[in-house]
Amino acid sequence: MNFAKMQGAGNDFVLLDPQGKERDWSRLAVTMCDRHYGIGADGILLVASSTVADFRMRIFNPDGSEAEMCGNGIRC
To answer: Quick check: pTM over 0.85?
Structure first.
């Protein structure tokens, strides 16, 4: 799986292209964000295609919950 890790105003995120596939993103966020056994991050950002904008972003917190918005994630 290809990813990029970026930092925005002190928070770090793993950016992924979901490539139109549905996965258990919540579980993946918990696994990838673990700072001891995963990549370590404050969340994962899915950067997907959109029909109304340049792209669509979904944000998953380290506990697996999906956030509505994340200012520092948008910086990335």
So the answer is: yes
Is the C-alpha dihedral spanning 4, 13, 25, 31 positive or negative?
positive
CB 65 within 8 A of CB 33: no
Instruction: List the structure tokens of 38.
Output: 């995963």
Point out which residues pair with 7 in neighbouring strands: 12
- Residues present in the chain in total: 76
Name residue, tokens 């139109």. Answer: 20
Residue 48, SS3 per DSSP: strand
Reported as a single tens digit per residue, the pLDDT across 52-61 is: 999 889 999 9
